[in-house]
Amino acid sequence: MRIPLQGSASLCVAVAVVAIVLVWLPAYRWFFVISVLIGIVIAAGLALWHKYAPIKEKDLENKRPLGL
Fold it and tell me: At residue 67, does pLDDT exceed 80?
């Protein structure tokens, strides 16, 4: 079974499904809010980490050791 949606149409369907579940099942609202807050905190922490501790050229391994 495959739904023939691509690109922004798939995103719209996903947002609609989440909105319907949040309206239909009130217990999921708190789970959703807490999950979004945790995601925002982790994203902000990673952004700050990479801002103040950027990856240097010497930290990268050679992806083409034979030069191919």
Answer: no
